[in-house]
Each structure stands twice: as C-alpha cells, then as structure tokens.
Design goal:
It is an enzyme of class 3 (hydrolase). It is a single chain. The protein is α/β, with parallel strands linked by helices and 307 residues long. The protein folds into 2 domains: 5-187 and 253-305, Purple Acid Phosphatase, chain A, domain 2, CATH 3.60.21.10; 190-243, no CATH class. The chain contains 9 helices and 16 strands. It has helices at 15-24, 54-66, 76-84, 101-113, 116-126, 147-160, 165-171, 177-187, 223-226, and strands at residues 5-8, 28-30, 33-35, 40-43, 70-72, 132-135, 138-141, 190-192, 199-200, 206-207, 209-211, 256-258, 274-276, 278-279, 286-292, 303-305. The strands form 5 sheets. Strands 1, 4, 5, 14, 15 and 16 form a 6-stranded mixed sheet that branches. A 4-stranded mixed sheet has the order 6-7-12-13, with no helix packed on it. The longest helix has 14 residues, at 147-160. The chain binds manganese (II) ion. Residues 10, 46, 75-77, 142, 260 line the site of manganese (II) ion (MN).
Length: 307
C-alpha cells in the first residue's frame, strides 16, 4: 500500500483535464486508466454531470480503481444519480430522486452522453462506492468529515447492502437521522437563519439556510463569519440550537480532503489539516490535485494543476 497519494478534485466529465493532470503528475497510461509506480490517486467524487466526456471520466477512474491505482468516494452527483435511477419498490414511475425539471436538468449531460447500458453499468458501480475513506493516515470525503454521521451511514450501508432501494427508503425520508447525515456528509452542513432572514443563491432562488465552515469552531461566530461561500449573508449572531457540531474539525485529527465547494483562485488549505481540491473545472476553473506525502500540516505548495 503506497504512502503517497494524489488527491484529485471534482471532474464533472472533464476527462481531458484529467488525462493532462495525471500525465503531468507522472502517471502513465495503463489500459483505459493510468498508473504511477509509487503513488495512488484518491478521487473526491463528482465524476459525472455537466462536462463533455462523462463516459470517459467514469472509464478512467473505474479502471484505476479496479487496478488498485486509485480509490474514489461517492459525490453528491453520484448519490443523486443512483437515487434518480432507483425506483421506489411497489410503485410505478416513482423514483427516490424525483424526475422533476430541476433534478433532470442537473443530470442531463449524463443522460445525454451515456447509452442505457453504460448508464445502468455506471449506476451499478456507484452503488458500491464508499461514502468516505481513511487509509494510511489520510481521510477523503466529498463535502464534510463528520465522525458520527459517517458511522451512521456506514452502518446502514452494511445492513442494507450498499446504496440499494432498502438504503434509500430510509435515507430519503426528510427529517430522519440518515437523511441529515447524507446531506451533511455529501453536500456540506448548513444552518438555518432566524425567521425573516434570507439570501439569494446563484440561481436567484431565496433560501433561509447557509452552508458553514464545518471545519472551524462556531463559538462566537456570526452567520456571515461562519458561512462558507461568497453570498451576502447577514452579520448577526448564530441562533442557539441550530448547530449540531460546535467544535469544528479537530486540529489533531488526520488530514482530510474534500471536493464539492466550487472554489476559485489560488488553491490553499482551508485549515492546517483540511484541504478542498475542487477548483471548478466545470465552470472555467481548473482540475486540481494535492500531492500528499505523509505531512500532518497541509501546505499550499503541494497543490498541482495544469495551466
Ligand atoms: Mn459536489
């Protein structure tokens, strides 16, 4: 088992950027995938949707995983795809992710680009993906490392046989612990603002919740200060009781790598032991890797991308 890992951000169908990045990192073509003599690639999820070469992105990553050259965790887009294509048992035409216009649109590029058999094959594979990994002192999860919630999801995956209809039956019930766990771990924890306070998201939809810097302690923070993103959030104290986890990600915990947050600009760690590798390749940004060689304090110098 290698001790040197390249953690690679959200791909969203940009297979070309992935090939260039892997070659630049010293990987060489191996079957449909790539291999490095003494490093392993760790993918943070969100291989699909949006980009031009979704089937190829899946093929490269899956080949590498099957060959032991990579590990991948589930992203919210893979999770949504599985739910979208899993029928609610005992119903006709009802799916664990509703086929609404909005949900369809988010998944459209994948629906357009994959044949029925490719799609079925991809969904069957996504059902088997881990929700989070920890190996050789490094952690990878799509949006947020939350110990209790990851344990909760893993227990359910074990008893219900991976991401099956059985699992979704429970996990898609709004208000259930499992639903909250999936939302927080794969999409990032959010907190509700007091009544009357709203922001508008990128699509102009009003919302009364904000995504938070889960890796930082929340004590004494305001909504604006604890918010993760660039929205115009009110600078008022966080209401008591809305936070599940006040402490943030412990500074002595193993380094954790996430994707998901559509960051821009020059890559830099979010905390000494927290890195986001998503620099928005699907929105004109770049596909980024972090080259990890065992360090417990993460450094901006260890990001790598192709110009
Ligand atoms: Mn995501």
């Amino acid at each position: 088992m290698p001790q040197h890992f390249d953690i690679i951000g959200d791909i969203h169908g940009h297979a070309d950027a992935l090939r260039m990045l892997l070659l630049d990192l010293g990987y060489h073509p191996h079957g449909h995938g790539f291999r490095h003599p003494d490093r392993q690639a760790l993918f943070v999820g969100d291989l699909i949707d949006r980009g031009p070469e979704i089937a190829n992105a899946i093929r490269i990553v899956r080949t590498m995983v099957d060959a032991g050259d990579a590990v991948v965790v589930m992203g919210n887009h893979e999770f949504n795809a599985v739910a979208f294509h899993t029928a609610v048992p005992g119903t006709k035409d009802r799916w664990f992710r509703e086929h609404s216009r909005k949900n369809q649109k988010q998944h459209q590029a994948t629906l357009d680009q994959l044949s029925n058999s490719e799609l079925a094959d991809a969904v069957a594979w996504f059902r088997t993906l881990p929700v989070a990994i920890e190996q050789n002192g490094v952690r990878v999860v799509h949006a947020a490392w939350q110990d209790d919630q990851i344990d909760e999801i893993r227990r359910s995956l074990q008893t219900r046989g991976r991401f099956t209809a059985e699992f979704f039956f429970d996990a898609m019930q709004t208000g259930s612990d499992r639903h909250a766990a999936i939302e927080d771990v794969l999409k990032g924890p959010e907190i509700r603002m007091p009544p009357g306070q709203q922001i508008r998201d990128k699509s102009g939809h009003p919302r009364d919740t904000v995504r938070v810097k889960w890796y930082e302690a929340a004590n004494g923070r305001t909504y604006r200060g604890y918010h993760l993103g660039s929205d115009d959030v009110p600078d008022i104290a966080i209401a008591p009781g809305v936070l599940k986890n006040q402490d943030g990600y412990r500074p002595d915990a193993p380094p954790v790598f996430v994707g998901h947050y559509w960051l821009t600009g020059t890559p830099t760690p979010l905390a000494s032991n927290v890195v986001c590798t998503d620099y928005s390749v699907a929105k004109g940004g770049k596909l980024v890797a972090y080259r990890w060689d065992g360090e417990s304090v993460l450094s901006a110098k260890k990001f790598h991308w192709v110009h």
